């Protein structure tokens, strides 16, 4: 998987992927991540302006279409024949969920467009963007952190990235349910005991308990996830 990230703040990505799992994936050559400054694609006559006032007189600034078009075209040239999917991170997009992460992990390359200010000229969204994705219903200062979220979630699904141990840990949302509670030593912590069943050594009963807890917690906290499973 190749991630080609277009941003006005490439420095934000420094160190973001030096985490053990993502970094190991890069070192193994399973993914490559590069950042490119949208400002490098501004019209050089001006002082490198990439933003402008919106028509209609709203407050705030928009990213101008021409530098974005050039930045995306340059990314497509870099990626050559891999038929990249252009993803724009925006609260207007489809909420990112594990199914979408799986879908993205099937692609060979992704161009991630990170907006700033009030976002991008609609004509770029219409003509250059394949998917609009949101990481949640809240407002961030830019699309950089959402892009990092996407890179992390997608990279974990690339074959060879996770070891057996980590795959097992990834079960929580993978089957569509929230994970059951987990305990480690000591058996009693500040007067609170580990549930007896987990100390019983009876694997079938433990599994039953965990599945029941998983269902209980999902019903209580995220009934929407159960509806989603039932619709499949
Ligand atoms: N922003 N999920 C505004 C987000 C966001 C989100 C990114 C802020 C785009 C223009 N992106 N810029 N939530 O809040 O993806």
3D architecture notes:
The protein is α/β, with parallel strands linked by helices. Helix content is 38%, strand content 18%. The protein is built from nine helices and nine strands. The strands form three sheets. Strands 2-1-6-5-7 form a five-stranded parallel β-sheet. Strands 3-4 form a two-stranded antiparallel ribbon. A two-stranded antiparallel sheet has the order 8-9. Helix 3 links the parallel strand 5 (85-95) and strand 6. Helix 3 crosses helix 5 (144-155) and helix 8 (203-221) packs across helix 9. The radius of gyration is 22 Å and the shape is elongated. The structure holds ligand 4HQ. Ligand 4HQ binds next to strand 5.
Keywords, please?
232 residues; alpha/beta; two-stranded antiparallel ribbon; 9 helices; binds ligand 4HQ
Helix content: 25-40%
Question: End-to-end distance, in Å?
Answer: 27 Å
How confident overall, as mean pLDDT?
95
Number of strand elements:
9
What is this structure's SSE topology?
Layout (H helix, E strand, L loop, with lengths): L1 E6 L12 H8 L4 E6 L13 E2 L9 E2 L1 H15 L5 E11 L2 H8 L3 E6 L7 H6 L3 E4 L9 H12 L8 H6 L1 H4 L13 E2 L2 E2 L9 H19 L1 H9 L1
Parallel strand pairs: 1-2, 1-6, 5-6, 5-7
Antiparallel strand pairs: 3-4, 8-9
Helix pairs in contact: 3-5, 8-9
Bound molecules: ligand 4HQ.
Ligand 4HQ binds next to strand 5.
